[in-house]
Amino acid sequence: MAKLDHPTIRVRDLELARRWYVEQLGLRVEFEVPERRTVALQDDAELTLFLVETTGHVEADGVALTFQVEDVEHTHRELAAKDVPFVSPPARRFRGYGAELLDPDGHLIYLWDPASMREKGGSV
Question: pLDDT digit string (tens) for 112-121?
Answer without folding.
Answer: 999 998 888 7
